[in-house]
Amino acid sequence: MDKELQNLGGPDPEMKNSPIAAESDEDFDALRQEGEGPVCYFNDRVFGDGEYIRSGTAYLRCDNGLWMPAGNVED
After folding, report:
1. Looking at the 3D structure of the chain, how many domains does it have?
2. Burial of 67 (0-12, 13-18, 19+ CB in 10 A)
3. pLDDT digits (tens, 9 = 90+) for 12-44
4. Taking a C-beta distance cutoff of 8 angstroms, is the pair 42, 28 a contact?
5. Between 18 and which of 7, 23, 40, 57 could a Cys-Cys bridge form, CB atoms 3.0 to 4.6 Å apart?
6. pTM score, two decimals?
7. Distances from the Cα of 3 to the Cαs of 36, 42, 62, 75, in angstroms?
8. Containing domain of residue 44, as a range?
9. What is the separation of C-alpha 55 from the centre of its chain, rounded to a whole number of angstroms?
């Protein structure tokens, strides 16, 4: 993973954010329906499908409007 990704921190509930899926989410299909199509939002910023971000110690990948876990930051 690109160690140069800026840490965007946690999602701000006052800003537009796409849903973040957990690998154990039973409501995955419902979360997918909430997605915005080929883009994801994180704190009002737009990211294209397949782009990665860092949120705290986690990497997330945009997957058709849904943030998917993509690993953790190694210390």
Report:
1. 1
2. buried
3. 999 999 999 876 656 656 656 655 678 999 999
4. no
5. 40
6. 0.80
7. 27, 19, 17, 11
8. 1-75
9. 8
